Amino acid sequence: MRAADPAALGAWYRECLGLDADENGLWRTEAGVTVFATFESGTEYFGSRAQQTMLDFRVRDLDAMLAQLRAKGADVADETQDIEGVGRFGWVTDPEGNRIELWQPS
C-alpha cells in the first residue's frame, strides 16, 4: 500500500484495527472467508475516485469496532449496511484517505 508516511500509516492500522503485521508485512489471519470482488470503474462505493482498491476486514462485533475507532478519533462513516445472509458492514477512512470496509459476517 502506498503511503506518504508508511510508518505512521502502519502504526494506525496496528493501533486502530489490530493488524499485527511484522516488519516484513507478514500478517497471519484467522481461518475464514476471503472475498475478492470487482466493481465497475465508475463506482462511488470506494469513496474517492482515486482509490483503486478497498480493503475489507472481518470483525466479530461491528458496533464495538466502530465505537473503538470513533474513540480513537478515526473518520468513521455514520451509516452501516445489513445484507441478509451476508452480514453487516461499516466503513472507516484511514489517515491517508483510503476507505476501508468492516464486515461482521452473518
TrEMBL record:
SUPFAM superfamilies: Glyoxalase/Bleomycin resistance protein/Dihydroxybiphenyl dioxygenase. Residues 1-105 form the VOC domain. Pfam families: Glyoxalase_6 (PF18029). This is VOC domain-containing protein. It comes from Amycolatopsis sacchari.
